[in-house]
Amino acid sequence: MEIQGYNLPDDLYYDADHYWCKLEGGLIVMGMNDFAQKLAGEIVFVQLPFEGKKIQTGKKFAKVESGKWVGKVMGPVDGEIAASNQALETNPKLINQDCYGQGWMYKIKPDDPGKIDALTHGADKIRSWLLADIERYKKG
């Protein structure tokens, strides 16, 4: 679904920091959404935590940098890192080029896959959430 020039597929789940998640074979695949990657500009670095690293909901576990911004990546759920997208090490711009495909960032083995439901999901909720954030960032 497109909202004011930003593409946010309504079948994905979104956290407050504009990372998307989807369940795939028992894992949660995570990446930066279109709004965040456009706001950040060209991504130049992505921290790739080691497999097995424990993460917690709302706690920082990695960082992403662009030429003008350094951002924290927070855990969308409790769990552990099952994989990181190693292609981002040599080509972090994949996030800008294909944030929902080749630019995925992490695969997480969740302690409870049902916790993904706490994230923003569904066309109406996504639309109102994104429109509110667009306004907030315009003012900020």
Description:
This protein has 4 helices and 11 strands. It is an alpha+beta fold. The protein has a single domain (about 1-135), classed as OB fold (Dihydrolipoamide Acetyltransferase, E2P) (Beta Barrel). The strands form 3 sheets. It has a 6-stranded antiparallel β-sheet.
The average pLDDT is 96
Helix content: 10-25%
Total strands: the figure is: 11
Quote the beta fraction: 25-35%
What's the architecture in CATH terms? Beta Barrel
The structure class reads alpha+beta
CATH homology superfamily name: RNA polymerase II/Efflux pump adaptor protein, barrel-sandwich hybrid domain
CATH class annotation? Mainly Beta
Described by its quaternary structure, the protein is: single chain
CA radius of gyration is 14 Å
Strand order of the largest sheet: 3-4-5-11-10-7
* Total helical segments: 4
Written as H for each helix and E for each strand, in order along the chain, the element string is: EEEEEHEEEEEHHEH
Distance between the termini: 25 Å
- By CATH, the topology is OB fold (Dihydrolipoamide Acetyltransferase, E2P)
- The low-pLDDT segments are none
Q: Count the domains.
A: 1
The biggest beta sheet is recorded as: 6 strands, antiparallel
